[in-house]
Hints:
By secondary structure, the chain is an alpha+beta fold. The chain folds into 9 domains: 2-46 and 54-139, no CATH class; 142-234; 273-316, no CATH class; 327-477, Cathepsin D, subunit A, domain 1; 487-508 and 541-677 and 686-696 and 706-725, 2-Layer Sandwich (Alpha-Beta Plaits), CATH 3.30.70.270; 736-799, Alpha-Beta Plaits; 806-937, Ribonuclease H-like superfamily/Ribonuclease H (Nucleotidyltransferase, domain 5, 2-Layer Sandwich); 968-1037, Endonuclease III, domain 1 (Orthogonal Bundle); and more. β33 and β34 (1089-1094) form a beta hairpin. Residues 1-63 are annotated as: Disordered.
Amino acid sequence: MGTLTQSLQEVQSTQAQFQSQLHDLQAGRPGPSPPLPWSFFASSAPSGGEVHTPEPEVPMPDRFNGDRKLFQDFITSCLLYFSLKPRTYTNDHVRIQMVITLLTGEARTWAHTLIHAQDPTLNSWLSFLASMETMFGDPFKTDTAQTAIRALRQGRHPVEEYVTSFRKYALDTAWNEAALVDQFRRGLADHIKDEIARGDRPRILEEIILLSISVDRRWRERQLEKNINPYPSLLPQTRRMGSNTPRPLALPPVSSSPLASSEEPMQVGLIRGHLPPAELERRRKENCCLYCGRLGHVARTCPEKIRPRGKPLCHVQLPRSPSESTYLLSFDIVLQWEDKKIPLRAMIDSGASNCILDSSLAHRVCVPVHNKEYPIKIQVVDGSSLSSGVVTHETLPIQVWAGPRHQETLSFDLIPSPMFPVILGIPWLRQHDPMIQWSTGLISFPSPYCNQNCLNSPPTLSVNTVLDTNMRKTGVQLPTCYQEYKDVFDEIGVETLPPHRKYDCPIDLLPGAAIPFGRIYPLSTPELEVLKTYIKENLQKGFIRPSTSPAGAGIFFIGKKDGGLRPCVDFRELNHITIKNRYPLPLIPELMERLQTATVFSKIDLRGAYNLVRIREGDEWKTAFRTRYGHFEYVVMPYGLCNAPGTFQHLVNDVFRDLLDRFVIIYLDDILIYSPTLEEHQRNVEEVLSRLRNHQLYAKLDKCSFNQSRISFLGYILSPGKLEMDPEKVAAIHSWPTPTNKKEVQRFLGFSNFYRKFIRNFSHIVQPLTRLTKNHEKFRWAEDTQKAFLKLKDLFTSAPILEQPDPNHPYFLEVDASENATGAILSQRNLTSGNLHPIAFYSKRLNPAETRYDVGDKELLAIKRGFDEWRHLLEGSLYPITVYTDHQNLEHIKTAKRLRPRQARWALFFTRFNFHITYRPGSRNGKADALSRCYSVDSTIETSPPTILQQKHFTTVQSTLLSRLKKDSKGQSSNKQCLLVSPNNLMEVLKNVHDSPLAGHGGIRKTLHRTRQLYHWPSLKKDVTEYIRSCPECNRMKSPKCKPVGLLQPLPTASTPWRDLSIDFIVDLPPSQGNTAIMVVVDRFSKMAHFLPIPGLPTANETASLFLKEIVRLHGVPSSIVSDRGVQFTSKVWSAFCQSLNIKIHLSSSHHPQTNGQTERVNQQLEQYLRCYSSYQQDNWSDLLPTAEFAYNSQTHDSIHKPRSLLTTDSIPLRFQIRQLQVPSRRLINDSDTCKIVVNNFLWH
């Protein structure tokens, strides 16, 4: 044994020398020639006549597949093998060939590449080792070894094990002798440190190792004399000593059948509860064990306490007094559905009204569930309702195995029950009528129901159903393929103080900030008891320590789902003065989009996540908290610090940096591993578990899931290519009570907004709810709000399943815009059905400025918002993106020669994407169109369907309005034409003189003049002014006016009607009956105008023909014309035409449209009119030009203080009541009866 130990030490020493020289070769530094490790390692080829001892038969080294963690063991095995066969492996060439034959997988591919390339690395053994070290070795081996050796502690393990692990890491640290001695002493157990401290401290590592072994052996012999197990941790509960040395645990074999066979009958186990105060005091006075009550030992070393938990108890003896303990009946069962088998522990509860399964466990292991036909309410023991609300879901019938031959099919109600995952209630007990022998602890099923329905299964399927006396929360069992890493799920490991790392949480305060000092919160008696336990446990773990800090935060408690209390330290004041760590957290929707090709999933939840990180040394005093039991400060990172999430995310990102987005995504303490195949997935999970072990991070087994095809993660249900909402959260939304104030509305919207990508038209549906959250809005729960609330809850239960985006297939973007919002749908074509399937929905309201965009810009804005929302998917796509829109003009936006400034800015953004726009009529663009539609301003107003009324209806309305005004007028004013208006009819009259198409939304002075011609009431001027200033159409459509800057040279004043004219064109209008432009002709004397629709910007010849036909025919030949410098007016044709008619031409100055300012002003008024009355498609403006001309010419002009038409006619056209018809203009013109109605509404004075 001594010779073998010495040989192993020589191999390790030689390996260290080789590695040092390999590093020198990689750094380009010449190093000394490697000394031969052993004398027989040198070349010793046999010479003639010599007889040599035969080489020993030793097994070949294990094959190496490229796994970094196995590289050093593989190289050591090869060196040892070569040393034992020196005559076989005499030169570098043979050794290299031997190593290559032992490579598999990725490593073999790498070596074969070198062979085919005839790489010079293959000429030297040292060069080959250097290249292999670079490829498969640990690049941070020194840092890893230093971190591991600092964290290494002997604990309760024998010192020989500690020495072995210490030597392993010491080889790679490059520390000097003094540093190694000091670190070795730090990791020893306290009783060995005490013995070493009594003498001279050793200065050499070998001396302190020998001394420690001697002291530990004497101490063990002494402990054996006391007949006490010196190492309780060596029982099956032992956790690993170091970061890479897990101690194997003996686990029962896992059977492939649902239940393992057993000849023992089912037994009922009992749970040990708290001791009564009287019994506890008796045991203390008599020096009895506080655990079992016997003499001769204490509770810490009680044989009953340290009994291995893996063995089921065959017999359980009931206590003599029923007051000593409280017992709960439970036994092992197995749930089976499809191809899944989940072992669990069921509790028998005669007070439960049904069989119950923990909802979180059901979603974690993907038990098939569905909605209950009728939701039910559940009351707890104290008579109050269940905090989670009504029960809305239940499992589908699944098989339940219990006992050697007991099989049945049950459905379970789903409620949050983490402490007891499965509860069998009174209906199950009544049906099975089990018999319990309390004296022996056996349970049997002799009822006729069981004999007929449950006990007819094959006897080969059985399970040991002995009840475990240690009732603890049961979850998912660790699969057999991952048993090597069971120490990662050790509960004891997380209770050990973690080492200092570079990721320690810093708390940097703002300069000059006052130190926060909180108050002590008053606590109830149960809260004080929990606080005592919390302080005691964390002091024992070393997570907190007594403090004399000037800071001090208060501590209070909040309730848990299971009814317990969770301590919360009020760090709000500290967070307010802390310099924030802006380390980003990943976007959850973006994480979900990384799972396109995944078919197998595993989820790992880290245990005590924040407590795995230390507070930066020197900052602990800032985390101090005050209680009535003392002043304490945290050594580990507590919950509630503003920098805690960023710090922990930084840690896990660095640990798994090279694995992120390959097969791992991480959000704080939730880790998801995903893979396309099961074989690859198992390798990926092992890699993740290995990283957790190396960095001393621990997981919570009962919150983990392994090798699942459907899994719950971060509020979503993931399956191959699919993304669904978590049914538990959907149930919470569906059972949400009606909000009673703004805060409750905000909570509901915040909770439901998480799933808005699943809900089509989300922003429009919640519009009545979001309106209630505004500061100036008074809370009033109206009928439309209740409808939106109920509709949203219903939509969550019927939301579609979204496809995962696949970058290897083209994307389709469907967009639309309405007057108030834009909507978009991102889709891809389903390979099976060939139909477009949604990936995500998006909708957003328009702000006040965006509502004033024209139709084309709104549709273009919808496209821009869609690209902006899914930029990370669409930018750089392999295939051109197809954009569907119902605005045909946008098909040519990429080739347009003239763009508005806004469109030019967006065009620069669009250059980042490869797309083409395709026109699709609105009738085929229903999905995107629905996203952009929203409620009207007042959803309670019912809109009558558009119908064509008969003439008698108009006569009736007119007569009714006339009679009403005459009836309300008790006397006319001095002007016999005016009627006195009562307050009841005031708004209707104002709409008539301002809003109607024949009024044209005139300004204040024009509307006042028109109103005074027809009506009278005392506050006429005030009411008209306020009405026009609050008119939404005027505020939205009219441009602001201001006085011109600088001096202008006026044109000569005209003296005769229609002798001095001005002409201009309004161009680039939406097509309307084939027309896209308007010719505007204004008389400079009377200010009258004619509006002539034309197909487009005319030529000079067409302009002259139109002028003769429409102007000269009616008013004669003018003497002068003012126009701009358009090509029509500067051409020789127009000049010759005007010269022949003796018309003087006045062209405006270049870049000075003020010359023709009168016509420009008329253009503004005409455009305002058309914006107010044109349809949403803006394709009926040609039909509006006659009424626009009438409205304009009948208004009073400021310069002449009379209606424009009065200067050319003897009477003023007056209107009384115009009934607006909700029919298309073409049908209106073709209907002779309707034309008569319109004529009858023109009352000429």
